[in-house]
Amino acid sequence: MKNNWIEWNGGEMPVKEGAIIDVKYRDGEIKYAVVAGERYAIDWNIDDVDADIVAYRPSFKLQPHRDHLIEIADAEVLRHLQAGQQLDAEEVVRITVDAVIQAMGVTND
Predict the structure, then answer these.
(1) What is the mean pLDDT of residues 43-64?
(2) Domain range list for the chain
(3) Total-model pTM
């Protein structure tokens, strides 16, 4: 995973539809902050053509999206605290990372 790019060899779309991602095509072109499942990130199959998506990554190109992710993570930590859970720093980091990954639509499959 160079520069946070996740290499792609084809198959079902690896992120949740609607996730904001960057995609890299076989010809080297990169599209930033595209919507998964729409125009620039709709065909995830490998057909050995220039337009094949060969790598992707969560996009942090859009500042409002980043701010929204922070709000989501904060709300998730607050939810745990309001439920009476005592959280150490490691648990706060885990909850935050899990919330951001889920919001970005990235899967570990």
Answers:
(1) 85
(2) 2-58, 63-103
(3) 0.56
